[in-house]
Design goal:
Distance between the termini: 31 Å
Number of helices: 7
Order of helices and strands: EEEEHEHHEHHEEEEEEEHEH
Number of strands: 14
Strand order of the largest sheet: 1-2-3-4-5-6-7
Number of domains: 1
CATH class: Alpha Beta
Radius of gyration: 16 Å
Length: 240
Amino acid sequence: MASQPAYQLTAQVWRIPAGPFDFVNSFAIVEEDGRVSLIDTGMPSSGKRIEAGLKAIGKSVEDVHRIVLTHAHGDHAGGAAKLKERTDADISISAIDAPFARNGYAPPRDGSTLGGKFLNLLGPKGNKFAKVVIGEEFADGDVLPVGGGLRVVHTPGHTPGHVALRHEADGVLITGDSIWNVRKMGWGVRAFCTDIKLNQKTADVLGEMDYEIAAFTHGKHVTQNARETVRRFLQEAKRA
């Protein structure tokens, strides 16, 4: 079953499927002045889906004035360069992942997996995406001026500078790729991680935070007992 163009999570926050079947998501936060801040930009091919999602909420690409990236992987930052050309939006990412985004390639993968070893052998050319012009670098604990406040939570492991983002006003947690919710809640693809064990360790903070809605960059969002659902997954994953 195909996804709808956009899903309203709160008065300000929308989830926009940037790939088929909710596999990868962007998020639109509508500012008080009507402009849009976009969290992640999907893949280079995601432009039409993001445009359709914005249209569904009464906005357009031209309304996007800011882009925040959760990490420097091609399925999240791959569409940023094209959107920058169309909007001249200011783009921000963690200071740790910023060099990778600027150079247009993903950080090294975890060599403990066969897939990770293969991706590392490909080098930058095999892990590249369009170079991103970064306007701002942020760090753990920063509150970005997005939608009344977007708190940065550094959760390294998937990439060295990977972050989750909490929309302070509405209690929406955007987990990034620390946890996926494709078909069921679980860890992301191991071969895509820089450090699998670190990813699983730092994800614990997602069970300790306060939020009403858990929104995943891969998979569907959770609106009922979101924090308890995430916490239960983390506890069960430790026992597994």
